[in-house]
Amino acid sequence: MSTPDLIEPFNRDFLHHPLGHDGEVPFVLRHGELIACFHGLRLHTRLRSLLARDGGLLGHVADTEVFSAGGQPLSAWTPYASVLDNSAITHLDRLIRTLHVLNALSALDGRPLWLGIHPLHVRAVPDAHGTVFGSILRRCGLRPSQVVLEFTDTERLGRAHLSKAIAGFREHGYGIAFGVRGDDDAQLDALLALRPDAVRIAQGALLAATLSSLDRAELAQRIARIHDAGALALLRGVGDAAQRALALELGADGWQAAEAATTPSQERSA
Length: 270
Description:
The protein has a single domain (46-62, 85-259), classed as TIM Barrel, CATH 3.20.20. A hairpin with a 2-residue loop joins strand 1 and strand 2. The chain has helices at 3-14, 86-104, 119-124, 131-139, 159-172, 185-192, 203-211, 213-228, 241-250, 266-269, and strands at 27-30, 33-38, 41-52, 57-67, 73-74, 113-117, 147-151, 175-180, 198-201, 232-238, 254-257. The protein contains ten helices and eleven strands. The longest helix has 19 residues, at 86-104. It has an eight-stranded mixed barrel with strand order 3-4-6-7-8-9-10-11, surrounded by six helices. The two termini are 30 Å apart. The chain is of the alpha/beta class. This is EAL domain-containing protein (Putative c-di-GMP-specific phosphodiesterase class I).
């Protein structure tokens, strides 16, 4: 099924949530882009390329762009400020990931789609992790193995619950990644013990490495530890040729390029 064919069935599934505004439709197709509506906010998908060190395409990363009803840009965390209970958390997080899947269907070309999963959602779901979202993916013609779930802010989760959640997602075939700052060795070692498929290191670590030989050596060591754990080491925010050369020198397997903001659509500027 195409994205337009899927909108109405998913609207029925996500409709009538207590946090929705009266008459608010969860998914709306405007100017060729699918938008999610939540508590008066407009949620958009921003797809970014995840590039391999040889220049090939590793996959696509889906980020959330949030706008007020009047078109003002807001933090991607803003919708979660309206979340009041576990039911609302799971509803919102699944709504956002469903939005991203529907917007990415025509772009994947066999490459995996990277989706963030909110730590509050992981904490709110006691078991059977990945079951509901797996059914959503199948309705879209995808398999969990075509999706990489990236965990960030893992300090909000107890180690036992995080381990249980990852085991549940793996049973369904999802790829597992962690997003880290890159300057906390204890956190990195604890996460590597969970055997992720990949680790994405925040942009600040690369910027520090461009300014300091000590920071450059420390980042190279962290990348080596990631490789020793059997995971891919990926960097965020690689912009110019000098940063690409540094990423290669450090041994990174790939990176998410630093990209300029997209031009606002009519929906965003209305």
